[in-house]
Amino acid sequence: MALPSVEIPRYELTLPSQDIKVQFRPFLVKEEKLLLIAMESKDNKEIVSATKEILKACTFDKLDIENLPMFDIEYILLQVRSKSVGEISKFRVLCPDDKETLTEVELDLTKVNVNVDDEHTNKIVVDEKRNLGLVLNYPTLNISQAGFDMEDTNIDAVFDVIISSIDHIYEGDKIYPAKDSTKEELKEFIETMSQEVFKKVKKFFDTMPQLRHEIEVENPKTKVKSKVVFRGLQDFFQ
């Protein structure tokens, strides 16, 4: 005898990176378990693989998940979670004042948004006189597959992220699409930058849109109130 099927509700969100409406459904039990296990492993490839698999299913395979900016991915996951386990979630955070006391806080996931730095720009000017520069794209899930950390001491890994994010290089009215250049040519272009220009490139990654929310917590021992910032998947999927 066949068991009755469970009806799964559908919801709608707007992608932060563009004005596109996306339908989604909540996690199934097996999907959230898969994601939490991946998060606990702290293995980047495992996290990316689980994220890709779950989001494809929860958005009915209507999005090019691999090529969405990471802040879109984070936002979709948070919206899915809010409809799966409740809009109000509890988290344990470390109190900043003594850095040893853990306290529990409640967070309304519907109030968490993607924040954009006012000084953020994806156009990097290399030489004003020549009108020479480059335009960068946001890191995607595909780029994150290999790990994404601009503070990485492995300079080759940092260069790989930068090169993968170049959309095009321009000089005057002439455009040089990154896809028409080799990795070595793009690497050489980056290596010939001055330190001042390279700092602008790094600033693009430091200030790019991100899932971020600030709350006030009170240390139950010291009664000191402090600000705690949640950012990125690891913070919102404890």
* SS-based class: alpha+beta
Element order: H for helix, E for strand:
EEHHHEEEEEHHEEHHEEH
> Can you summarize the main beta sheet?
4 strands, antiparallel
Which percent bin holds the helix content? Answer: 25-40%
Shape call: globular
The spatial strand order of the largest sheet comes to 6-7-8-9
Number of strands: 11
Oligomer: single chain
**Rg result:** 21 Å
Strand percentage lies at 25-35%
Q: How far apart, in Å, are the first and last alpha carbons? A: 40 Å
Would you kindly provide a written description of the structure presented here, covering whatever features stand out?
The protein has helices at residues 29-41, 44-58, 70-85, 141-144, 155-165, 183-191, 195-207, 232-236; strands at residues 11-14, 21-24, 88-94, 102-108, 113-115, 123-127, 132-136, 166-171, 174-177, 210-218, 225-231. It is α+β, with helices and mostly antiparallel strands and 238 residues long. It folds into two domains: 11-114 and 210-236, no CATH class; 123-207, no CATH class. The chain has a four-stranded antiparallel β-sheet with strand order 6-7-8-9. α1 packs antiparallel against α2 (44-58). The radius of gyration is 21 Å and the shape is globular. The model has no long low-confidence stretch (mean pLDDT 88).
